[in-house]
Amino acid sequence: MILINGIESAAIDPCDRGFAYGDGVFRTLALRDSQPLLWRRHYARLAHDATALGIACPDEQVLAADIATVAPRHADGAIRITLTRGIAPRGYAMQLGSATTRVVACSPRTAAAAKAVRARWCDLRLGIQPALAGIKHLNRIENVLARAEWQDPSIAEGLLLDTRGNVIGGTMSNLVLYRDGLLTTPALNECGIAGVTRDLIVEYARAEGLPVRIAPVRREDVQAADGVFLLNSLIGVWQITALGDLAWPEHELAARMRKWIGDAEAH
Amino acid sequence: MILINGIESAAIDPCDRGFAYGDGVFRTLALRDSQPLLWRRHYARLAHDATALGIACPDEQVLAADIATVAPRHADGAIRITLTRGIAPRGYAMQLGSATTRVVACSPRTAAAAKAVRARWCDLRLGIQPALAGIKHLNRIENVLARAEWQDPSIAEGLLLDTRGNVIGGTMSNLVLYRDGLLTTPALNECGIAGVTRDLIVEYARAEGLPVRIAPVRREDVQAADGVFLLNSLIGVWQITALGDLAWPEHELAARMRKWIGDAEAH
Fold first, then answer.
1. Which of A5, A176, B28, B41 is most buried, most CB within 10 Å of its CB?
2. For the segment B183-236, what is each residue's pLDDT rounded down to a tens digit?
């Protein structure tokens, strides 16, 4: 079920700037018993991203009401919220007073039972764009091309470097490394998407006294880690136990991070 | 008037990957007396771009028939053709056998009578992405943000550098410099869009014995040029006669380039 500006519909205007230029943002979140998980965190990120692009973000209550309408269809499904700069005539110039288009869609969640996964390195390098770094915007061809690099269903995720050779994350997930008592996640000030689960893990780790470093990560750092983990709102925490020729035993931090997520969800 | 897959409609499925991820390509071209100008060149570029992203391009005749249907509405208007990877469930992975969505829209052409224009330098730097360089894809937030840097209607275009400091072109146009008998246009192998008019000018200049260099261009090269020109399919050729503190007198090359375009259109 899909609501467009609050109305059940399957029609985006082809003049919508989300379609014409990818001029918008989105977030994906999980439902449990038809309730959105970590809603306030997701809303805060969505509002941040929209504001960064100069797109008016609807009030939290408006989006929450849309979610309440669509959620019963797939009580443990996924919600995608898309906001665009709205409908406008041809041309890159923003139109004053154009109204944000909001799309709230509910779909089944493809069961990702795996918790220990195989990953690979992608060949595509993410472009550096500080003006868009961290934002979950609709310009995602890089992710599409990276995900198209493999078909082997036994590989769950691909890791991406940027054009400087820094590791940024997976095609659809954030990355966390653990080594010698230190948790590291790639800095996302030049490219990549800052996910809600990553925020949460950084916050809970620090609250528990586990040092966290947000910094550039090199491929060697990944290879030398004691544990490598992928995060997103639908998968939760995956541990990478195989990456190319490398293998890791399961690490206790995965369960600890899952507990933090559970605590935050219950909060 | 807008045709979606050949049918008059104003509805894009919100699950279309063009909307979800900007996963598609487009081209814009001019009509004269309801006939598309430089059609074979535009089709060739569109097909090239679609193929580069692994999107099946409809046959030339199919798109030409769509254009013939919409063109009478604005006999001297503009056509935008958009191709996307089609409708698919959530997720970056491409679905085998998904059908390309094609959108052919006709709109009035906003009269760009000006031939000598003012331009400015944009602050935004284009990210380097060789996998997408030259392609007119739907991921255009960079162009949107660059175009939002100025509101002064007396400024017709903004010039963009990439993160290496190379000049790439305007927010909606390609750039050509002339100096000491040599025509230079920025190389577009790291970012930017390769337009049909730029192809045509390079081809006609070489055919007339005017040397052409396709190479990295620095800001100093622009400032030191005898003439600086902007090209696209709707504006034709604009000469930049004012750029920041710099001013140029009108240069005879502009009229020569307009003649080449006219010759190619008549061909």
1. A176
2. 999 999 999 999 999 999 999 999 999 999 999 999 999 999 999 999 999 999
CB A39 within 8 A of CB A29: yes
Cβ pair A139:B92 closer than 8 A: no
Tokens describing residue A183: 């948790």
Where do you find CATH 3.20.10.10 in chain B? 116-266
pLDDT single digits (tens) A189-238: 999 999 999 999 999 999 999 999 999 999 999 999 999 999 999 999 99
Which amino acid, A73?
Answer: R
Chain B residue numbers touching A144 (CB-CB < 8 A): 17, 21, 23, 85, 92, 94
Q: Is the pTM of this model over 0.95?
A: yes
What CATH class has A2-107? alpha beta
8 Å CB contact of A141 and B139 = yes
The shortest C-alpha distance from B49 to chain A (Å) reads 13
What are the residues whose beta carbons fall under 8 Å from the beta carbon of A47, sequence distance 6 or more? A57, A60
Are A243 and A228 in contact by the 8 Å Cβ rule? The answer is yes
Q: Which CATH architecture is the domain B116-266 placed in?
A: Alpha-Beta Barrel (3.20)
